[in-house]
Design goal:
Blueprint (H helix, E strand, L loop, with lengths): L2 E7 L7 H14 L4 E7 L11 H4 L3 E2 L5 E2 L2 H8 L9 E3 H13 L10 H17 L6 E6 L9 H14 L4 E8 L11 H13 L5 E6 L5 H11 L6 E5 L8 H7 L2 H8 L10 H12 L3 E8 L9 H13 L3 E8 H6 L4 H4 L5 E4 L8 H13 L4 E4 L1 H14 L5 E3 L8 E6 L14 E9 L4 H6 L3 E8 L1 E3 L4 H6 L3 E5 L6 E5 L6 E4 L14 H12 L3
Parallel strand pairs: 1-6, 1-7, 2-5, 2-6, 7-8, 8-9, 10-11, 10-12, 12-13, 13-21, 14-15
Antiparallel strand pairs: 3-4, 15-18, 16-17, 16-19, 19-20, 20-21
Length: 535
Amino acid sequence: MKKYIFVTGGVCSSLGKGIAAASLGSLLECRGFTVRMIKVDPYINVDAGTMSPYQHGEVYVTDDGAETDLDLGNYSRFTGSTLNQANSITTGQVYQSVIKKEREGRYLGKTVQVIPHITDEIKQRIYKIGEDPNVDFTVIEVGGTVGDIESIPFLEAARQMIHDIGRENVLSVHLTLVPTVTGGELKTKPTQHSVKELQSIGIQPDILLCRAAVELDPSMRRKIASFTNVQLDSVLTARDVNTTIYEIPLIYHNQGLDELVLKKMGMTIPSIDLSPWQHVVDIFNTAKQTAKIALVGKYVDLGDAYKSIDEALVHGGIGNGSKVKIIKIDSEQLEKEERPLDEVFKDIDGILIPGGFGQRGIQGMIDTAKYARENKIPLLGICLGMQVMVIEYSRNKAQLDEADSSEFKPDGPQSVVSLLEEQINVQSYGGTMRLGRSETHLKENTKIWHIYGSDVIFERHRHRYEVTNSYKDQLTENGLLINGYTPDGSLVETVEWPDHPWGIGVQYHPEFLSKPFKPHPLFKSFVEAALKNVK
């Protein structure tokens, strides 16, 4: 029988359910099992694609072009789980599907209700992933907090699955909070209430992960076990880490999380190899050098807005046996401040300009690109960041004084970046960009070709605008290296600055493919260049 593990959260959001679910998945993989990850998001949006980064953090894109919650990025970095549109389930998707079936008459005149029709749709989507003959465990993270009205149908579906296929096949892992109050005292009452809320829905948690600043002592664990009806050995501490999130699988393993899961589900316990995780943590603890990278973006006020980029930079450091310190700089504030850029970037070893949408903060990015180009500071431009590099180069090196993007100046006389042809008459914003995995051909003997070690690469895209083909010749005649194209040569994919130690822009999102054990080659090379530039 297939095994399903539901990971829920209580008390408040942002406790680390995604990392906990991903860590559990990674531990099971380290024991030789095949794991699939699913994220359930209770919001009514069909996907995360139209949501502001300030609302929900970054949008993670899969190979098949699904725009999903950032936790799928955690799953990708921590596990080898195959991820596509089916691994992201939202209330919007579920209701859209049920209403479509009702309109088609597929419910044969029945009254369509949350139970059984909505819950059946949820279960069907989970089973579709979990019943794959090659899958041993399916880990389902339920977004939001127990007690939220939006989560109830998904928790009811979980309760039904426990009833349908048995407790030995469906496990409940609940992440909760043990806060510290004035005087440093830890309080268990929020955890008690959170478990009571889950029990009122009909789910008795099998394992508790108690988020706390420090390790819980035995007496506190005993108290929690007593008041929540959870076995003492199943009350674990999800303590804060001072090193790296990649230590979390080791922390959970040392408390026996993976063995507990296997025992409770009646599985044999194979040996485990945690050496890759230990190696990552050892590098982090012993690294002697640190590269300071400035991330100049427009959503820097929210920590999760550039989550995959942040982690890919960390991976680039790991790949070079070093650490990376990321300094977030608001590109809009750069436009308003009177500080010279020499002062802003005086201690910076490398600069990254990430993706984004809209005109706000663009001039700050353009000024940053110009400063990095003229002062030979390594720079990586991603998506919008590459477009900014093209605009800056056009204005200052290619005699295109009014160069801009039609996104920012629709009627501009020199739109060196413009809307994709198939996007011109698009009326709907959801899922209509150039999305997902596609092929790029690199020119031989260019810097990026040497970095990848291949002339054909596959990367994921998420954008509407491209470099305008009519300006390519003028740009290349003035020195810009356009060294990556789509297979038919119609779209620009990568650019490089001439006579510069490391200045590369890419239209795609390489951060989505980076892992701690396998840093993306672009990030590894970029951090290496930044380390050479350490002040």
